[in-house]
Amino acid sequence: KLILLDSLLQENQTGRRMDLEIVHARSNKPLVTLPDQLENITVLELKKNIAGKKPKYKDTNRQELRLEPKGKPLKDEQTLQELELKTGAIVYFKDRGMQIGWTTVFLCEYAGPLLVYLWFYSRPWLAYGELVKPAQIGLTAHIAAGAWALHYGKRILETIFIHRFSNATMPVTNLFKNCGYYWGFAGYIAYHINHPLYTTPSNIQVFSCLAAFLACELGNFSIHLLLRNLRPEGSKVRKIPLPSSNPLTQLFSLVSCPNYTYEIGAWLSFSLMTQCIPVALFTVAGAYQMVIWALGKHRNYRKEFKDYPRRKAIFPFVL
Predict the structure, then answer these.
(1) What is the pTM of this model?
(2) Are 280 and 264 a contacting pair, CB within 8 Å?
(3) Alpha-carbon dihedral angle through residues 176, 182, 187, 193, given to the nearest 10 degrees
């Protein structure tokens, strides 16, 4: 009796133990059985236990666990007790594939367009060949190169010093997809703006649109800085973003994702400044993707915070 009582006391102190069956979410085939799992361990610790049995998945960022085959991913900090798992329960596993750090992907995404564009700008003969009477690069092309370098230089510095990512990694396949998109458009745009036959718009159009571009870039930076200060370093804390004393952050009173609003505004200004169709196509493609992201984030904000203020997702009073 004393032994049984001591065993019960130990169980109460350390938590109940359970056997879990880990199966593939897509095929329902067994992956591994994990016996004697304490109910107070976290999902992250469970992933490490899976990695101990299956070395292929030693990178826990590669693992995604769910309670249903098509359910939401479980958060690393959740415990088995919070999830109300019992012995014999099934946990569904998804292999997210080889992973790569967000910072690495972003640096590759943004360094590429900067180098590609400046290659066309500074070495035009490599793209257009040796011309008998080469035309001088116009003022608009010079301004466009400076604006382009400012934008991607800003993005690189923000990646290193400003952004705090909720997820450490993404699938490595995204590196090639994202770089292909940004690098390809950079070459397409640079080829036309730096072309010897490029026709510049009027000075009024160029400088007014340049002013709008710079204002949007500053607004975008202001929003990124505010978002950084919302999340303590090393945490995944989420708070309702609200305007600060910086007037450029007042757009938060109207939309959930003003960083995307400013980003679209910057590229729209760049399109009008250069009067270049490839830039307009890049702007439309980027705006379409940012609208999707903004709607998703707006929806998540409203689900997560019951007192979330009334505002649109990305375009004030419209969407």
Answers:
(1) 0.85
(2) no
(3) 180
